[in-house]
Amino acid sequence: MVRQHPCLHEICNLKIQNAGLPAIRILGRHLKPTTQFAQLFGPMATKRVLRLEWDDLRDLAKVGEIRLKKRLANGFYLVNSQEFFWGFSLVKEGERLISYLSKQMKSALLS
Amino acid sequence: MIQASDPFETYDFIPQKDALLDSLYSPLPPYLRINTLKTNEQKAFEIIQKEGIELTPIPNVPFFYRAAWEKGLGHALSYKVGLFYPQALSSALPVLALALRPQDIILDMCAAPGGKTTYMAQLTGDSSLIVANDRNIGRLTSLTSNIKRLGITCVVVSSISGEQFPPQERFHKVLLDAPCSGEGKYRLDREGRVLFRAEGHTNLPAIQKGLIVRAFDTLIPGGTLVYSTCTLNPMENEDVITYLLKKRPAMVVPWSPPLMSHPGVLEFNGRAFSKEVRHARRFYPHEIDSVGFFVAKIIKPR
């Protein structure tokens, strides 16, 4: 994902190693937005944002799964805690929250 | 009192040189730059302070703070999630000299590990177009990881030898923070020996001269080149600028830095430099409490 710029074409003939931020990764047969994408677009999200207590977030990072206090619709959610977006996690069977947090975020949370 | 050794024996142009030599026995204080591309400055400030890191703002240097913490700043959670970048205060100077505007097309010719690149992205609100180049492919890993950690989308990374960078005139601003002997970072141990002195027999001035000419050639007419190093050696600073002035129709222009500074030196070891180098600025470690720096702002005439 690269910021749109009116002169982007002017640098197209350079030998580029990489550009902007990775926004999507292929996970099996699915596309998964990256943590960087979650952090960039999280503040603009109007739904599918799951706010967790700090200790619950750390448990999620440590154990890989926590039980939710109230039921939610199944699917992926942006995880927010302490006004910061940490990545994505998956709600299954309405109350199981399965971590899809990146290795970097897990290690940051558990350090 | 420890007898000071003098790694700058021939540099009689340094003001209050005894004070500089005394200062070399203490470590440099840590500084950090708050990253406003993930959250606003106030919120990031609060989160960082909550972690126990004491912050003191630096007047006139946007987003820079002096930091105090019992651990290394790289261990902080707020670092890992990209709320700040630990950075020497003086490395803000060449970026500020560029006077960036949103929508500028910018080349950072020797960009890794990306402290100045990411500061440029932040100052332009992630809305410019920055080519971050470094010939050393191994160092691109740290550059790319910093770009990701800080959440920057306006940077394109290339790995081309600076002297071979395509000379088409396409950049509004070019930063050449050249490889140098790093004398501005020198510290002394208890016995007065220089710690972390760069070893080797590389002819740095020759490399710097090749780089500055190519950096200048990539500018559009009216564009700005900033040449900087973290060394005090005039042969890597004023002499390199003088070489460019001989080779190209460049103009060194004055600028007002936010930290205490001195004009470029006009003569060293019997060698006279162009009078224009007086517009360049020298920053000494004992006066700014950070790494010593040299910054020259150069314009390509229309």
Describe the protein.
Chain A has 111 residues and is an alpha+beta fold. Chain A has one domain (22-110). Chain A has three helices and eight strands. A five-stranded mixed sheet of chain A has the order 4-6-7-8-5. Chain A is elongated. Chain A starts with 15 loop residues before the first strand and ends with a helix. The model of chain A has no long low-confidence stretch (mean pLDDT 92). In chain B, strands 5, 6, 7, 8, 11, 12, 13, 16 and 17 form a nine-stranded mixed sheet that branches. In chain B, helix 6 (140-150) links the parallel strand 6 (129-133) and strand 7. In chain B, helix 7 crosses helix 8. The model of chain B has no long low-confidence stretch (mean pLDDT 94). At the A-B interface, strand 1, helix 1 and helix 3 of A face helix 6 and strand 7 of B. Strand 1 (16-19) of chain A pairs antiparallel with strand 7 (155-158) of chain B.
Key attributes of the depicted protein:
heterodimer, A: 111 residues, alpha+beta, five-stranded mixed sheet, two-stranded antiparallel sheet, 3 helices, 8 strands, 23% helix, 35% strand, elongated, B: 302 residues, Rossmann fold, nine-stranded mixed sheet, 9 helices, 25% helix, globular
The strand count of chain A comes to 8
Quaternary state, please?
Answer: heterodimer
Ends apart, CA distance between termini of chain A: 30 Å
Overall body shape of chain A: elongated
Which percent band covers the strand fraction of chain A? 35-45%
What's the architecture of chain B in CATH terms?
Answer: 3-Layer(aba) Sandwich
At the fold tier of CATH, the topology name of chain B is: Rossmann fold
pLDDT below 50 for ≥5 consecutive residues: which ranges of chain B? Answer: none
User: Count the helices of chain B. How many?
Assistant: 9
Structural category of chain B: alpha+beta
Radius of gyration of chain B: 19 Å
Give the largest interface. A-B, 32 and 33 residues
CATH superfamily of chain B: Vaccinia Virus protein VP39
Which structural class do you get from the secondary structure elements of chain A?
A: alpha+beta
Give the overall shape of chain B, derived from the CA principal axes.
globular
**Biggest sheet strand line-up of chain A:** 4-6-7-8-5
State the helicity of chain B in percent bands. Answer: 10-25%
Provide the succession of SSEs of chain B.
Answer: HEHEEHEHEHEHEEEEHEHEEEEEHE
Taking all Cα atoms into account, the compactness measure Rg of chain A is 16 Å
Question: Stretches of chain A where pLDDT falls below 50 for ≥5 residues?
Answer: none
Question: What is the H-and-E element order of chain A?
Answer: EEEHEHEEEEH
